[in-house]
Amino acid sequence: MISSMAASHAIWPKEDDAIFGLAAKAQQAVKKHGKDKVINSTLGALMDDNGDLICMKTVYDELKSMPNANLAAYALVAGQPDFLEAVQEACFREFKPDAFIKAVATPGGTGSVRHTIFNYTNPGDTVLVSDWYWKPYVTISEEFGRKVSHYKLFNDKNEFNIESFKENFETLLNKQKRLVAIINSPAQNPTGYSLSDEEWQQVIDIMKENAKNQDNRIILLIDVAYIDFAGKGNERRKFFKLFSNLPENILVVVGYSLSKGYTMYGMRLGAAIGISSNKDIAEEFYYSCAHSNRANWSNCNRGAMEVMARICKDPDKFKAYEEEKDLYKTMLQKRAEAFVKASEEVGLEILPYRDGFFISIPCDNAKEISDKLMEENLFLIPLKKGLRFAVCAVAEDKCRIAPAMIKKVMDSLK
Ligand SMILES: Cc1ncc(COP(=O)(O)O)c(C=O)c1O
Known about the structure:
44% of the residues lie in helices and 15% in strands. It has 414 residues and is of the alpha/beta class. The strands form 4 sheets. It has a 5-stranded mixed sheet, sandwiched between helices. Helix 2 packs across helix 10 (302-313), helix 5 packs across helix 6 and helix 10 packs across helix 11. The chain starts with 17 loop residues before the first helix and ends with a helix. The model has no long low-confidence stretch (mean pLDDT 97). Pyridoxal-5'-phosphate (PLP) binds next to helix 5.
C-alpha cells in the first residue's frame, strides 16, 4: 500500500482550518443551547446582534439589478478598467500618493499577498512579518518555498516596535539584498492595532535610509483588508500620502480587499495596488501580477467588479453605500469599546486596540483557556501568543460580559 502520491513540495500536515472547525463547534452549541447562551467570536465576518451574517443591501441590490450576462462573462485578466480605477479611488480617497500607481484585480486581499510574495522574493528568501500575524502569510510563503521571520509588533510601552522592525528589516535586507516586509494596518488581524502616522513616518525613514544602497530592493506590502472599518471618517488613510516620491528602489504594494468593506467575502475580489516613483517599475508590477493572474486563476469575479465600479461611479449610490457602511462601522466601534472598557474593569490584559474586527489577549496557554471557555459556551480563537476575540461577530451586550468570563478562566488555570 502506498501512502502518498503528491510531489514532496505539496505534502503538508493533514490539518483542517482551526478557525472554521471552532466556528462549527460554536454553531453546534447554538443548536443545542440557543443563541442567547452562546458567544461565538470565532469568525472574522461582520454579524448582526442576532448572529447572522451582515450582507450590505446597497451592494446586493446593485448585484441583483445587473443583467445575467454581466455576471456570467469572463473579465479581463488584469481586471475591468472601470474597477481598476474605482478601487484606487476607494482605497486612497483624498490621500492618493504622488506616484505612478497601477492596480490589478485579485481574488480577495489574499491574491495580492500571494502575488507580492511570489513575484518579489526569490526561492529560499525570508519574508518579514510581525509576531502577531494572519496565518496565511506563512501558508503562502511556505507554498512557494519562502521562509518567514518575525519582528515584535509591540514594545514594552505597547507601541509599534520600531526597533525590532528596523533590526529584522536590516538583517534580512543586508543578507538578501531584497526584502518583502508586510505590515497589516490599520486594524491589524488579530490585535486591532493601527500604526499612527508618526509610526508610519518612522517605517518610511528606515526604508529610505536603506534605499541609499542602490543594490537594495525594498518591497513593503501593506495589508489594508480592514481599512473600511477603521478610524473616524478617512483619518486612517492619511498615511498613504507618505508614499509620495519615494526612492525608486522602494516599491509599496497595497493589498485591498472587498471582502469586509463590501461584505463580499465569498465573492473573492480585491486588488494589488503598486506604488512607485518610477513608471517602468509600476508597469512591471502590473504585468507581473497580470501574468500571475493568468497562471493561477485566469481572471477574477466580473460581477463583483462591476458592482463596485457602479457604486463608486454614481454619487448617490456611493453616498447610500457609505451611509450603510458607517452604521456597521459605528456598531463595530461600540462593541469594541464595550469589550475594552469591560476588560479594564475586570483587569483583563488586552493588546492595544485601535480599530477593526479583532481584539487579542496575550497569554501562554491559549489552547487550554479556549478549551475551558468552550465549556461555558464562549468560543474564541487560540493563537500561539494569545487569544483572539472577534468583536465583529458578537453583540455589544455579550462583548461587555465576555472579558469577565475570560479573566475568570485565566485566573482559575494559573
Ligand atoms: C489580515 C488579513 N489580510 C487579508 C485578508 C484577505 O481576505 P480576503 O482574501 O478574503 O479578501 C484577511 C481576511 O481575513 C485578513 O484577515
